[in-house]
Amino acid sequence: MPKIKGISAFALQIGLYLSVLIWMTVIVAEPVPGRSSLSDADEDSPLSEDYWFSPPKVWNFRRHVTRAVAASECWPRVKFGLLESSAGCPNGAWKSGSVRHLLRSTSSVSSQNYLKADIASDSVTLHFCMRDTEPSENLEEFDCLHVVNEPTFPPGSYCLFNGQRPNVYERCPAGFYWSAVGVDDVGHDGNRQYGADRRDIPTGEFFPTFSHYYFCCRNDSSPSEPVTLPIAQSFILLPLNSERKCQEITGVKARMFSLFLDTEGESYFGHPDKQSAPYAATEVVIEGGGSCSGDRYGKGLKLHLCYYSKS
């Protein structure tokens, strides 16, 4: 009987060894991208040594193809947001959400081709892309987890929407300063989401008749000096009020357009604490067509926006 047990244990070890060997064979025998199998390679055109020793793709633990990417192809993993463009949110880990404002019928956007916004006779719904800093199984995001250098925002002259919790709205990514915009709605929206426990809209305070949006802006380089940001998909940034010029970004064209929100008379913009701090390019439009700058009250808000795309 002991001998039989010994034989059984040996057979079990052999079985486990063969199982591992078969599993490894299946993994290695995956087809080369672009071919149904390795045997499809033409004998006169063998795979180069560069392919075998410096493959452009590697297998991760889920057997998904992971590209070798540069940090410039990845958005920083910090809390911030963008207005959603007509092309949608960038690839990777983002949450999409929207905020509806009850406004007058003259609200408008200068180019419908750039911004995703629902403009009705009595309201404007803005759509946002909020950076998700939590681990993601999105393939593009998995690629970016393996970059050598963690991506950061470059010096420049531009603004983002803040993505922090409302009680820490003054906390921005390194190099940015916070500012604010207040939207005074014409109507009363008792169903509005307040945003305190939401991560799919910008940092702010959202009341039935008034909303505060918080921004993160920087002004540590000329907007004419090109910077590098991910350009796989179109996106929108806000220029600085002091510059009123789109930040140049390598590889894409910048087009400035505007969004006019026909609000009540107590909308505002600027920096509540320091007048010299950078803030988003926004005008308070006075009833009758004029405009002013600074922390002034008026009859509407005009936001200047920059749309970036490869074409």
Automatic annotation (TrEMBL):
Domain of life: Eukaryota
InterPro entries documented for this protein: ApeC
Apextrin C-terminal domain ranges (all copies): 75-282
Name of this chain's protein: Apextrin C-terminal domain-containing protein
Source organism per UniProt: Hypsibius exemplaris (Freshwater tardigrade)
Upper lineage: Eukaryota, Metazoa, Ecdysozoa, Tardigrada, Eutardigrada
